[in-house]
Design brief:
Length: 495
């Protein structure tokens, strides 16, 4: 029989509706007595399991997610009209390690590409990277005109437009340069054409310095103002890129060499119950096999830091995590923004009430493995295991940052659906089966069966198999439709 509600942890005084529940229905969750529902409860929303007094804490995931702003009778709908966040200001953190290392597992293999520098890749693509927004349309037309070069083992020719690279100052300028250089280094790009204009702030010389040592056979440069016909010149360079990329063929590579980004967006009340815990269990499974995972969305850690901080592998990593969290809070404060006003209208409609509520569900993606490193925006993953990455919650910005960090693919959980794709293959995981059924063109994996009794372990095993299939070359729904975008983090003025 389909469960109507779930009490996530024994200490919870609210349950989550797993399906729409009508007023007058009787529900029971956990060890608590039956409760008569007093009003209609939408799927994913919270129900009071007992009388909750005004100012009393609301508990979900075994964690305080806010407090009651009025008396809430048992059976009532618990949401924005009768509860609020407990969060305010900065928090003093202390390190009390609680480390749980997953038992080692023999890694399966996928058929990927081995680059000349030894790195693994799951795609063999040619990328055109504009260094300035002024040449976006040139880059798009150039990729369209040269699709005939996609032959043999080459998987595609793509470009990623953006509005930056000029009229930026200081940190923003440096950040754009760093992010674009990181994308050029991405292993899924067998060859790259870096396309500039010639008069932008981000000069060729600056970019080469940022890029560091590179393979001149793999990376080509074209400055449009320096040639008579940029399309003719671009064609010659892309032919060289294609000749280089065509040398690579798939071969067996252990999944221990995979880097997988983990993201959620358009969340609902089931995100922290189905898809996110399944991703977390997958993360533990990949780490046990020697692989690496990346967790970002720093503002969506606020209020749930307790799930993460004590999992840092040592004091040094803990201090980096504290700096990341407080640094992002200061970023909000410097712009006179409320640190804890985060859940979007869509989140609220889906049943998420406070930032604590959202964050507790969000961090489920991190599983239970130790946090091995904390890396900055535009930096690459260099440490095996679970990594945290400095970045915002914004879907496009954070997915781009994970790609730049070296993620071969991205797992994106959603309760409401979204079509976008990052430069790396982006798998969409639905939190509920209704979304998977309604949006077959968006969703790659349905975590909804967890509501009907599938175990988190079994769902994670399904997900691991799908990841291996995608690493082997199976296209995601976003890839089938050509949905690929980047977005660069920006904080300063535009000249």
């Amino acid at each position: 029989m389909l469960m109507k509600t779930i009490q996530i942890a024994p200490a919870d005084n609210v349950a989550v509706a797993l399906c729409p529940i009508n007023a007058g229905e009787t529900v029971q969750s956990g060890d608590l007595s039956q409760v008569v529902v007093t009003e209609a409860i939408p799927q994913g929303h919270k129900i009071a399991l007992k009388n909750i007094a005004k100012e009393e804490n609301i508990i979900k995931y075994g964690f305080v997610i806010g407090h009651a702003t009025t008396d809430i009778p048992a059976g009532s709908w618990v949401h924005t009209h009768n509860m609020a966040t407990n969060l305010s200001g900065e928090i003093e953190y202390s390190y009390h390690p609680e480390l749980k290392q997953p038992a080692s597992e023999k890694p399966e293999c996928f058929n990927g590409f081995r680059r000349k520098d030894g790195r693994a890749a799951i795609r063999n693509e040619i990328w055109v990277i504009p260094t300035v927004g002024c040449v976006n349309d040139v880059a798009k037309r150039m990729t369209a005109l040269n699709q005939d070069l996609v032959t043999g083992t080459i998987d595609g020719l793509y470009t990623f437009d953006h509005p930056f690279g000029c009229s930026q100052t200081g940190h923003d300028h440096a950040q754009t340069r760093k992010l674009l250089a990181a994308l050029v280094r991405h292993p899924n790009a067998a060859a790259v054409l870096v396309l500039g204009l010639g008069c932008e702030n981000l000069t060729h010389e600056q970019f080469v310095e940022e890029l560091g040592d590179y393979d001149a056979d793999r990376v080509k440069f074209l400055t449009c103002q320096e040639v008579e016909d940029e399309f003719e010149a671009g064609r010659k360079l892309l032919e060289e890129c294609a000749a280089y990329a065509g040398q690579f063929h798939r071969e067996p590579i252990p999944v221990s060499e995979l880097v997988v980004g983990m993201k959620c967006g358009g969340s609902d009340g089931l995100s922290g119950i189905t898809a996110n815990p399944a991703v977390g269990r997958f993360s533990d499974m990949l780490v046990a096999r020697g692989g690496s995972t990346v967790l970002t969305e720093v503002p969506e850690m606020f209020g749930a830091e307790g799930f993460l901080m004590n999992r840092c592998i040592n004091q040094e990593v803990f201090e980096k995590a504290v700096s990341m969290i407080n640094g992002f809070k200061n970023y909000f404060i410097s712009h006179n923004e409320v640190v804890y006003d985060n859940p979007s209208p869509g989140n609220r409609q889906g049943g998420i009430t406070t930032l604590e509520d959202k964050s507790c569900g969000c961090v489920q993606k991190g599983g239970t493995a130790p946090i091995m490193d904390v890396i900055g925006y535009g930096d690459a993953v260099v440490t095996k295991g679970l990594n945290m990455l400095y970045g915002p919650g914004n879907d496009l910005v954070s997915a781009t940052a994970m790609t730049a960090a070296g993620a071969h693919l991205i797992l994106f959980t959603t309760g409401r659906g979204t079509p976008f794709g990052a430069p790396a293959p982006t798998l969409k995981l639905s939190t509920n089966s209704r979304l998977a059924e309604n949006k077959k063109g968006w969703i790659d994996f349905d975590a909804g069966p967890i509501v009907e009794g599938e175990s988190i372990d079994d769902a994670a095993k399904r997900l691991l198999q799908l990841v291996i299939e995608v690493a082997n070359g199976k296209e995601t729904q976003t890839e089938k439709r050509g949905y690929r975008s980047i977005s660069i983090f920006k904080d300063g003025v535009v000249l």
